[in-house]
Description:
By secondary structure, the protein is an all-alpha fold. It has a domain at 27-62. 42% of the residues lie in helices and 0% in strands. The chain contains 2 helices and no strands. Helix 1 packs antiparallel against helix 2 (50-62). The longest helix is centred in the middle third of the chain and has 15 residues, at 32-46. The chain is elongated and about 65 Å long. The N and C termini lie far apart (60 Å).
Amino acid sequence: MTVPTRHSMPPVALSLRTEGDLSDPSAEEDCAGCAELSAVRDRASAVGDMTTVSDCNVLLRRHPQGH
């Protein structure tokens, strides 16, 4: 009896973040949504809520370009 294959595809290799990637993204000028995310991130950072800081950074990076 043979053992079934557990994974049909090879593992995915993810790139490591470099030092340049570690800075917080900046808010788009004249965008209320970006300004609010930036403000939430600043308040979260002040109280040590790094989960919210990270969430805000993800949302700012995903923000559509050219409003």
